[in-house]
Amino acid sequence: MSIPEATNSLTFSEGDLPLPVLWGCELSAARRSYTFRVPEEWQYEHKLLLCTVCLGANARDECHLLELVPEDGDSRAPVLLATLKPSVTPTVSLFGMELSPPVTFRLRAGSGPLCISGQLKPGKEAGEGEAEQPRHPRSPSRQGTRSRKEQERSTEKMK
Amino acid sequence: MSIPEATNSLTFSEGDLPLPVLWGCELSAARRSYTFRVPEEWQYEHKLLLCTVCLGANARDECHLLELVPEDGDSRAPVLLATLKPSVTPTVSLFGMELSPPVTFRLRAGSGPLCISGQLKPGKEAGEGEAEQPRHPRSPSRQGTRSRKEQERSTEKMK
Amino acid sequence: MSIPEATNSLTFSEGDLPLPVLWGCELSAARRSYTFRVPEEWQYEHKLLLCTVCLGANARDECHLLELVPEDGDSRAPVLLATLKPSVTPTVSLFGMELSPPVTFRLRAGSGPLCISGQLKPGKEAGEGEAEQPRHPRSPSRQGTRSRKEQERSTEKMK
Amino acid sequence: MSIPEATNSLTFSEGDLPLPVLWGCELSAARRSYTFRVPEEWQYEHKLLLCTVCLGANARDECHLLELVPEDGDSRAPVLLATLKPSVTPTVSLFGMELSPPVTFRLRAGSGPLCISGQLKPGKEAGEGEAEQPRHPRSPSRQGTRSRKEQERSTEKMK
Amino acid sequence: MSIPEATNSLTFSEGDLPLPVLWGCELSAARRSYTFRVPEEWQYEHKLLLCTVCLGANARDECHLLELVPEDGDSRAPVLLATLKPSVTPTVSLFGMELSPPVTFRLRAGSGPLCISGQLKPGKEAGEGEAEQPRHPRSPSRQGTRSRKEQERSTEKMK
Q: Is the pTM of this model over 0.90?
């Protein structure tokens, strides 16, 4: 797995049964952005459920802005997610936000360290059929249930 | 798509399978209000799930008030959603709020920039039947499940 | 509809299909309490899902206390919901709170303006049967699913 | 019903259909702890869903600590739930916490008033069978669905 | 049960029907980390649902950082969950975070006391089949539903 240990952490299972796994990454002046991709060898699709964003103990008392950046080939503007400042709000809750990897976080302002925590929730096995899904029209799990092949295809279309 | 890039961002898929897509917009003294409409070419109904509201790094230390404005022809008062101030609360969580586009946000006070983030969750295809829905009497997905034609019709009635 | 426009706002549909509708009210020294009742002409039962409480831009820097007041004939004490102060916490999230109208909000302390936002989620048509409900023993939608007639009846009993 | 009006409030229905009911209690130096028990005459089991904790307008600017205390006969330590201070955080959201009465709250530090709000969500009728429940393996409603007799029995075992 | 009473508390039932049980632990300079394991004698799998993190009344006015530490044999970095400071944010909500024990919390910075509250939600009996689960494709309860034996097996694989 190619994710550098210094800037993120993953506690995952490679066993046969998928479990939600803890996820985290750290942004700072030295590394302003980070893209999370589900490792190739994982046999299940995953959603990234964000938990919290918080500032490290040695963060300077300045505004830290966290944004989500669209994928390459997408000309739209980044989306600002949270503004933190050590003396005002050092922790922000992002529970409820579900993202489909790949996902790119960027520190728009501030020198960090700013840490993002989340959980990877397994969907279904790559290539598994969608047959049962239409019975739950409000299922939020549609996000991230497409095989990566399908995602790449539609990303192609969007360029 | 006619949404100006400077004030909002959309990461969406035009593929055949609907995915929740990231959404964001920015309000400021230069652009105090913004109306989000589901693009005509999208074949699915969408709900807008709000995530966070936060202030940009250069926002002045004054009160910023975000409100939702009823559609034209609706004489009711706007609804105040959040009050932010850089030195007090630069980020407010709005997770749990689901809106049916079209939705108009307005900066009632403050000069911004104030950024709203959210996700667009696809409902069902426009024109798809409602036959199965009554089986889920507490389904929140009734919001946004009417075809746009039906919405326009009832908006007509309300005038 | 008899709700004064100055202190509340409703964006609702009178069409044949129920939609969650935005709701808001404003309390101040001039109007310390407000009771929300589902308008007689609405053919569906509704739950009020609270979203946020926030202070207006010109609120004085004093404690603002929002409470819920029991109905007439109920001798119990009001329930304090949130304490806000412009310089400390100008916005409080109340997502997750579902109430059965009629609901009375009161500003116990502070001179406001204090604004409450929420959404009205339609239940089922007044008079519709309860036959299917017992199959979902944990359904939260039991709140507000009784016809108004039934509610009035049991309110009578409580006096 | 023996609950003193000064320190708590309940808006409930004694009718034949259970409704979520508003609940609140107030702790202070004069009354540091409060135990909520479902009244004997209620024919349904109930869960207590916490909403918010907030400080009264005249609370001193000191730390207020709210804890949950295990039942008599349980030797474990109390669990600290929230720390509030008027000048820092006068309101804390506890949405998402579901408790099985009896529940004992205690003000570990601070002189209050500190007010807790919540909702009582009816489960099923006392004595009702559990036959259907195993079909929903993730149902959170297992908490509080045992008849009080069963609870007393297992409490006996724990001593 | 070997969990020391001074640093954690558990209100649980040893009866035949699983109930969500309150859970708490306290970290400080004297005890910087704590690992929660489901006691051997419990016949059900459990998920730990976090509620809040808060600082004790006598915590020094310095940054307190709470992190989750991967299990032994997992070389990845810890994940920072929350940053608290008595004068800024003495309580942080972590509702929505579900963890599969064993779980290790560590106080990365600050001298505490820092208290974590949560609830243990029973899954199914150890050894119980997975046969019914596939009918709920979006069930989050997959986490923690494996028997401990299976978990140990896959942990072995990961080393």
A: no
